[in-house]
Amino acid sequence: MKIEMDEKIKHRLIGLAVIISIAAIFAPAIIKKSSQRPDRNVTMNVKLPPKPLYPNVVIKSEKELFQKTKVAHVELAPIPEESQLPQLTKADLIEKNVFIKRASTPVELAKKTSARQNASIPVSKKAVESPDLKNKALAQKNNVSSPKKREAKGEYTVQLASFSKLSNAEHLLKHLESKGYRAKILRVKRKTGGFYFKVHVVGAGDKHEAEKLKQKLASTFQLNGFVIHTGVS
């Protein structure tokens, strides 16, 4: 007895058989992979190094630390003389100046001033006729009027530099004297306390001569000073 089947049903049965066979082949592999979970516990043998030993640190008191601490003394190089040219104000010039080293007024300046004073004194006809009276009048006028003229005229100097240390000022003073210049050191009191030392070059009869002296010092020593009228001859 033969069973006749429709072609469509036959094709479906063949396809179903193929699907079942493929599932039977790949199902065990899929089930095996799904059983391997990434979060499962893994046992591993790891050897850790021994625990390090802490060093023996002795904590000392602050007093002991300061007693054992050594303080190093460093000698700083002196500041270049060229960079120490202060800007003086009127208050600095009015302050009382104390001479550290005295430099006498040039003899030539004294001669010039006395010659000018003698030339400016008026002489009457009677004084010209009698030499004795003339000499007495000149002596009296020189003794009385000359100091007033010198006080009114004053002295012009060139301030070359100012230092906070006396040794630097003395070094510049010796250098100036070795070149034939007359100089002096003035000690000026600071408003904040302490002193600073000014180096002045003297020998100028008037402001014009002082300006020439300033230019000469600038070309010789490379120091740009400035002219000051001290008010005292």
TrEMBL record:
Annotated ranges, domain SPOR: 150-230
Annotated segments matching region Disordered: 111-151
TM regions (residue ranges): 12-31
GO molecular function: peptidoglycan binding
Keyword Membrane: yes
Keyword annotations: Membrane, Transmembrane, Transmembrane helix
Family annotation (Pfam families): SPOR
Record's protein name: Sporulation domain-containing protein
Organism this protein belongs to: Legionella israelensis
